[in-house]
Amino acid sequence: MGCFFSKGRKTEKESRPENEEERPKQYSWDQREKVDIKDYMFNGLKDETVGRLPGKVAGQQFFIQDCENCNIYIFDHTAAVTIDDCTNCIIFLGPVKGSVFFRNCRDCKCTLACQQFRVRDCRKLEIFLCCPTQPIIESSTNIKFGCFQWYYPELAFQFKDAGLSIFNNTWSNVHDFTPVSGEVNWSLLPENTVVQDYVPIPTTEELRAVRVSTEANRSIVPVSRGQRRKDSDESCLVILFAGDYTIANARKLIDEMVGKGFSLVQTKEVSMKAEDAKRVFQDKAPDYLPLLSKGPVIALEFNGDGAVEECRLIINKTFNGTKMFVSENKETASEDVDNFYNFVDIHMGM
After folding, report:
1. Is there a binding annotation on residue 115?
2. 98 labeled binding residue
3. Per the annotation, does 261 bind a ligand?
4. Which of 36, 85, 146, 338 could serve as 189's disulfide partner, Cβ 3.0–4.6 Å?
5. How far lies 335's CA from each of 130, 226, 281, 289, in Å?
6. Residue 106 annotated as binding?
7. How many domains does the chain have?
8. CA torsion sign, 135 to 138 to 140 to 141?
9. Is 271 annotated as a binding residue?
10. Per the record, where are the segments of Basic and acidic residues compositional bias (predicted)?
């Protein structure tokens, strides 16, 4: 006995007119927007200023190769960037979720932020960098590093889209895979280096639409001293706990301390557990344990004679009622810094 509904039912093939061709099946992956690799590449350019505006790359991979005497600006976040065989170029890269890899490049000046940074077979590069992992150079000479110093309105959101923290920046902790005895293949740029002298703001009509600033006090990434020699034996550790205004408070404190002549040595954003709190906060750990569950902490290290006293005065005056850890006195401050960064080294597996 046949199915009740089968009698008047025709197959798709039977119901199609004789002169109509069968259409191919449509799958979900066929309906995805096609990516043209040429939209994500600068290749073989000479004496040009080119770029991509915010929203035009949107997390895709990007390639720059065989360019000479060019100014290149990528004002968007990307997945990864490879730069090959470029000479005498100025390059700005917005936040890169993965790696930036320079190969066979020379006489280039760059500002960029990325998860991993690597240079191979290059010479005479000047890099203003934000990178949470150790920068790597290999078979390269005369590579100079400075701290990322750049701002435009969309940049903070692009850092989030790329999964990068503005407070995790090991720009000066460089590892040379191929050191040569008696030679120094990399160095740090002078602290008074003017970023715009190396990577100037673009002047073309299209790229001027991006409202860029290279002023240190406007930089999305806090400008830190890194591994340069400290001016003083006195440092102060401040730890801010997660909340609605943590980033704003950290920036305000940095502006206040730097404005009074103290140096920002380094910053860190990291999650802490109860056992970590005991290592860092010692006998005061119980006071801070309830705050750790709210999210990552932000740590700031300041340096300069009188840093501890001034920092405590600013916090009591400006952030009254906001719970923070701050070194109690200059005698114990160095131990506070050591305890925190020993914990960070363990946490990061360094």
Report:
1. yes
2. yes
3. no
4. 146
5. 27, 19, 10, 20
6. no
7. 2
8. positive
9. no
10. 9-30
